[in-house]
Amino acid sequence: MSSESEVVSANFTKEIAEKYYKLxxxxxxxxxxxxxxxxxxIISWNTGAEAIKQYxxxxxxxxxxxxxxxxxxxxxxxxxxxxxxxxxxxxxEEEGWRVKKDGTVFWANVIITPVYDKENKLIGYSKITRNLxxxxxxxxxxxxxxxxxxxxxxxxxxxxxxxxxxxxxxLDPAGNVSSWNEGARRLKGYEAxxxxxxxxxxxxxxxxxxxxxxxxxxxQATKNGRFEDEGWRYKKDGSAFWANTVLAPIYNxxxxxxxxxxxxxxLTERKKLEQQLFRINEDxxxxxxKSRLLIDSxxxxxxxxxxPDGIIMSWxxxxxxxxxxxxxxxxxxxxxIFYNREAIASGFPQFELKTALAxxxFEDEGWRIRKDGSAFWANVVISPIYNLDKRLLGFAKITRDMTEHRRNxxxxxxxxxxxxxxxxxxxxxxxxxxxxxxPIVNLEGLISALEEDLGPDAAKHQMLLSxxxxxxxTLKNVINDLSDVTKLQHVKEAxxxxxxxxxxxxxxxSLSDVIxxxxxxxxxxxxxxxxxRYPRKNLRSIIFNLVSNAxxxxxxxxxPKVVVTTSVSETGDCVLSVKDNGxxxxxxxxDKIFAMFKRVHxxxxxxxxxxxxxxxxxxxxxxKITVKSELGKGTEFNVYFLKQESTAS
Length: 649
Description:
By secondary structure, this protein is an alpha+beta fold. About 45% of the residues lie in helices and about 25% in strands. The strands form five sheets. The protein has a five-stranded antiparallel beta sheet, sandwiched between helices. Strands 15-17-18-20-19 form a five-stranded mixed beta sheet, covered by helices on one side. Strands 1-4-3-2 form a four-stranded antiparallel beta sheet, sandwiched between helices. Residues about 1-10 have low confidence and may be disordered.
């Protein structure tokens, strides 16, 4: 071959190499990779640079790279300093804020390297930039949380001590334990006074300590901003547990290292399960039937194998029970069949496998779909499985149905909300019943003053004055009833032996004017018991409200008759009954009559609080009340005093 052909061949090879190199650089989308001339002007631009910094090549080539810097950095000529440092040291690397085309900033990792020709003459610089905004945000969030917690040490302590499933501790810059939460005590067995001030290497094996691994963790955390590891750690009693540990440096406002946060989670059960699955997979080579029987014995977990592409290769009885598919229906299909349409469209199943490969495990909770189309809340753990040659065999996928657990959490949340609303209502009632008393007294005084001012003319306005006085009395009764309601929340009455006959007579005496005006008849028939052990004031309130209601809601066509009786139920409960011949209550209103301010017959004067008060008293004591009624015939209330001792006549 001639020398001319050799030159052409060499040039052709160089052109191809340069072409493929350009294709390689342009294919990188996670990094901005471009060249600067010796003065810092941009002379090349890749796809990653466009994605990160938003400029197209034709917009940015020829411009100075300082366009990416903040006004503050430009003012102090920071870009020139970077080039100078790169020339002096052979490379310059840092992290800091950079500016995109639209003016937004991002946290960047930047590496600038000088480029020389064959004669060692500087011909420009290579600049590689990576967007680390997400990592920076996570670090800033942790720093912000620490600063906020530092402002309120007690709140921090209560927060951390409330965590029982994680050991959350603080180390000083030297690695000595400076704080100890309840989760750490439960997980590692040391009391605070036993461990505070001690070097954290106490949790490591002798071999790890001899190899300097604890010190290595601190150095890596300081260098990289975070260190995460899984391995065996040791409790006070010498027993080992498999731990996930995250160590992060903590700095003060002056960027001085003040210590480390160390969060440890006991993953022994998960580790055991992973190890068990690995052993099962290895044993399959020797005894497939033995392995199948073992996996099938697990009913509460869906345990299955996926090949490296996510195709289902095995299926246990737990998987069939949770997901509804038989093995013959599902083996050979992609595991994305368990995901909803949105998750599949977003590529979430593939993301799970990639994350499991990258991190050694993927854990998630979310909605999954059964064969019948119904959804269940699942805890999913995916772990890659390798053979002895470190070749990927597939993935172990363990799923647990957590629907009931999630439902219980939701019910607890709703119950908590109902309790909060109930407490707020009680607080409102308490405030209203107290704050309205003074205005009513003022109103009474104003009416008295008005009557005096009217003098002889007061007779002309007597009807109006009487109505005003009646309205005030009604309002006073409502407030008194509200006061009784609030006292139930704040005052606990002691039980005592109360004579039922005497209590009814006492109530009749209080209602004597009403009884006389209505010509009511009160009949007492104590066949079951005469005395009842109960808070006297509360029992009087129950009988008073039931009897007064019976008279108040009398049928205008007949004189009211109220019958008070006692009996003992088949279960041994003491039953107090109040029956009348009044207006009665419609069936669709029976479940509403115990609500506050609820009145069935609006033409009858009343506050609508009496029955609510009765129900509240009985709820507080664990007792109950029932009602039977028929329109036009009357109503019967039965009060059940559960597990109460009575004294028969």
